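User:
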Amino acid sequence: MKIQEVNKQLENMKKQEQRKEEELLQVNLDLSGKEEALKEMKTREMSLQHTMEKLKQDWELKLSAKELDISHKHQQLSLMSNKLEQSGEKIKLLESNVTKLNQTTEKWKKETEELQTEILDKTTQIEELQTSLKSKTKELESLQEKVTSLQTT
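Assistant: Predicted structure:
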């Protein structure tokens, strides 16, 4: 009778061990999937950061070029102003050029504001991705702790 009880207990212990091994295998599968997703998210984040830096550099170059263009046009208008002061028609032409320059400057100011908004949006997206990445990292660490716990039992 005792041998049968011991055999039954032994059989139950083997079943429990098999269930724990299956649970551990499932946790390991979940963990490897999450590690892969984490790697992909890090790759995306780096790509976004690179894209944002590239956009920022491109727009800074465009802004510099436009500022130089404005400066050049301003210099041209100053020269024209000195030459055109003697004639009423020449003054009207200068005023027209100044108006065009002001309109162009306003247009460029709007474009600059749009660029700044776009940069802020990209920065916000990156921050959201970083927050998500931190959250996923914590989940991953929690799963790793569970795996360690299951492996020790």
